[in-house]
UniProtKB/TrEMBL annotation:
Domain of life where this protein originates: Eukaryota
Listed InterPro entries: AsaB-like (IPR044053)
Family: Belongs to the asaB hydroxylase/desaturase family.
Keyword Translocase appears in the UniProt entry: no
Record organism: Pseudovirgaria hyperparasitica
Protein name stated in the entry: Methyltransferase
Keywords: Oxidoreductase
GO MF terms, alphabetically ordered: oxidoreductase activity
Length: 286
């Protein structure tokens, strides 16, 4: 059966976090100092976590209910290695999501390449979108509720902010995640059904970069969580998931996700290569 049992990393439930907020300082090579502590994050690996295959589910996954959905889209950008190709992929994503979601505006502000086989050292390059990062650690949500408005205010161009930052508009932040391999086996991504997430298991974490302080959530383990993946994911099957939603209501407001070791991966499988985007989605309120 395509459903698998494997391990997932969650933030540890430490007494430390009752008095000290989790934090992570992201620095580039020029700022890195090995004598300075850059985070207080501790993760714990939970074994025997069931991850169900989306392909085996009878009903399609509704973005507004579970927080993620599988798309059918072939990118026209054959390689994403140069700044020009990154910009082309960003523009393509904006155009595609605007049509798909039938919204007023989409502004894609981030394109992130990841490569599990690259020799990247201990720091990341914060100034070059063409340099890949490794798969992220720990089950997490990219944007906290408090950070959503700050991210939108920082990234949305002034003319769009003047046009849409008023009563009557809904702002969301959504991610796309796409394999850059014909078949992805190494370190695929798992997605947690929003309806199964206890809000008390979301732990806010400061993400500090040289220009500003952001905030995301890490997820504590809870056996009630239901996880899903897409076995043998192809580049034509990107995943769209929610990271933030300004609108009130019971709809999915975020989607915890995490890379995990695939026990079915071939010993000769290529190391994961993927591309993800983050976009501000603006629509009229219902």
């Amino acid at each position: 059966m395509p459903d698998i049992v494997t391990s997932i990393e969650f933030i540890a439930d430490l007494p430390l976090y009752k008095n000290e907020k989790p934090y992570q300082v992201l620095v580039s090579a020029a700022e890195y100092d090995s004598s300075v502590t850059t985070n207080n994050l501790k993760f714990e690996k939970r074994d025997s976590v069931l991850i169900r295959d989306v392909r085996e589910q009878k009903e399609p996954f509704d973005l507004n209910e579970v927080g993620f959905t599988i798309l059918n889209h072939q990118t026209s950008v054959s390689e994403i290695k140069t700044n020009e190709e990154v910009a082309e992929y960003r523009s393509e994503t904006q155009t595609y999501l605007k049509k798909l979601l039938d919204v007023e505006c989409v502004y894609t502000f981030d394109v992130k390449l990841r490569d599990n086989g690259a020799d990247l050292g201990r720091v990341i390059n914060l100034r070059d979108d063409t340099v890949p990062d490794r798969p992220a650690k720990g089950a997490h949500v990219d944007v906290s509720r408090a950070a959503g408005p700050r991210i939108i205010g920082h990234h949305l161009p002034r003319e769009l902010m003047a046009k849409y930052a008023k009563r009557g508009y809904r702002f969301r932040i959504m991610n796309t995640w796409r394999s850059l391999l014909p078949i992805l086996e190494d370190m695929p991504l798992a997605y947690c059904d929003y309806r199964t997430v206890d809000k008390n298991d979301l732990i806010a974490c400061d993400r500090v970069i040289p220009t500003r302080v952001g905030e995301n959530y890490y997820l504590r383990y809870n056996p009630a969580q239901q996880w899903y993946w897409l076995e043998h994911m192809t580049p034509e099957e990107p995943v769209l998931f929610v990271s933030y939603d300004s609108a009130p209501g019971d709809q999915a407001r975020f989607c915890p996700h995490v890379p995990f070791p695939n026990p079915r991966a071939s010993p000769t499988a290529c190391k994961r290569r993927s591309v993800e985007t983050r976009s501000i989605i603006i629509s009229k309120e219902d």
